[in-house]
Automatic annotation (TrEMBL):
InterPro entries: TM_pro_TauE-like, TSUP. It holds the Pfam family TauE. It is a multi-pass membrane protein. Keywords: Cell membrane, Membrane, Transmembrane, Transmembrane helix, Transport. It is found in: Cell membrane. The chain crosses the membrane at residues 12-37, 49-66, 78-97, 103-121, 133-150, 156-177, 189-208, 228-247. This is Probable membrane transporter protein. GO terms for cellular component: plasma membrane.
Amino acid sequence: MSLPADLTPATLTLLVITTFVAGLARGFSGFGAALIFMPVASALIGPRLAAPVILIIDAVTTVGLVPDAFRRADRREVAVMALGACVGVPTGVYLLTHLDPLTIRWAIIGICAALLVLLLSGWRYHGKPKPPLTVGVGLLSGLFSGASQVGGPPVIAYWLGGAIPAGIVRANIVLYFEVSTALTLLNYLWGGLFVSALVPLCLMTAPAYGLGLWGGSRLFGIASEATFRRICLSLIALAVVIGLPLLDGMLR
């Protein structure tokens, strides 16, 4: 259960700081953690360790949100989207486990950058949710989640702009991602991604993530949503730049 041999104290410190910042974003906005965490963490420990780490610590620290979300959510709509994730998640995990790690890192950078543009554009789907489209969004989100844990923005853009009440939208998002997390955990287990090095990595990063979640939830009542949104998007952009393989020498 030892840490990766090339993980120096400096890179471990950067990993923990990144995890804390990712938790801040998640605690405030409900998403964005993986968009911040994955580009940097993939550069530090590789995508096949980074993806399981953020999956595990997020699953453990957010499980308390499930009961309330289950009561409030449109469970039929969540189930329809989960059908797509059942196809997308295994496909994403296959890519993560079979492609070259450097290729995966560039793909993560590209996906995060594209989703950042989507978030910056402010685009939302304003139509009524339709089952075929809902399944398609679930497939796309599941693909991104399985490969790189960045499946949030497609779901956010699809559900947030519709005519569904805000409380139900939030509950749908929380419940869907808990289902997606369960699917991903099973597929990561099947794909052999749960290795012993994850134990110390999760133990070291989980407290920082939990503290970030708490701090982010407190900031929600202090900072304006517009201000924090700008900060969050700036941090995602910074993570994309820092995580570029071309800058590896600066991170180690």
